[in-house]
Amino acid sequence: GDMAQLSGGRLVLLGRRGSWVRVAGGAPVSVERVEAALLANPLFDQVWVHASPYHSQLVAIVVPSRDALMSWCMLQHIPAARTARAKDVLRVPAVVSHVRAQLAAAAAAARLAPAELIADFHLEAEPFRAASGLLTPAGTPRRGALAARYKAAVDGMLERLQAKQAP
């Protein structure tokens, strides 16, 4: 089902009930809302956000727009953009920094709450596809399949974030 609330005499659709997670610390987060906010940025073709009631921070798998990213790389004179495979370009520190900045810019433009900000991300060169089981035939994310496919990446990001928070 859908979730909605009355606000100022108007019915406001909040999203699908299954897309809401109460993260550690108690803040409710709609991963669909966060994904939609990030996808408003032309640098991103696909984004899958992982939220957990056991962690207070969100992590994401990001599939950049190949064309937008390569154009930016050319403007920045990043030589790997001309010769390297897309997967290799995603490891260039300047590219990672640019993606991080664009995630922050998209979050700011959408006025996401602190609990809705992406704390860490993994860049993926291969788009999510229905043929690989990561999308439904209608093109919507299969969250369980994405969680299984990217479990190692998500676990690694969450471990790094926990290590940063440890005293």
Describe this structure in words.
With 167 residues, the chain is an alpha+beta fold. 40% of the residues lie in helices and 23% in strands. The protein is built from seven helices and seven strands; from the N terminus they run E-E-E-E-H-E-E-H-H-H-H-E-H-H. It has a three-stranded mixed β-sheet, sandwiched between helices. A hairpin with a 5-residue loop joins strand 3 (20-22) and strand 4 (28-30). Helix 1 crosses helix 5 (93-109). The chain is globular. Mean pLDDT is 87; it is low at 12-17. This is Long-chain fatty acid--CoA ligase. GO terms for molecular function: long-chain fatty acid-CoA ligase activity.
Strand content: 15-25%
* Main sheet strand line-up: 5-6-7
Order of helices and strands: EEEEHEEHHHHEHH
CATH architecture, please?
Answer: 2-Layer Sandwich
| CATH homologous superfamily caption | ANL, C-terminal domain
CATH class value? Alpha Beta
- CATH fold category name: GMP Synthetase, Chain A, domain 3
Average pLDDT, to the nearest integer? 87
Number of domains: 1
Quaternary status: single chain
Number of strands: 7
Helix content estimate: 25-40%
Question: Whole-Å distance between the termini?
Answer: 41 Å
Question: Helix tally?
Answer: 7
Helix-and-strand structural type: alpha+beta
Low-confidence stretches: 12-17
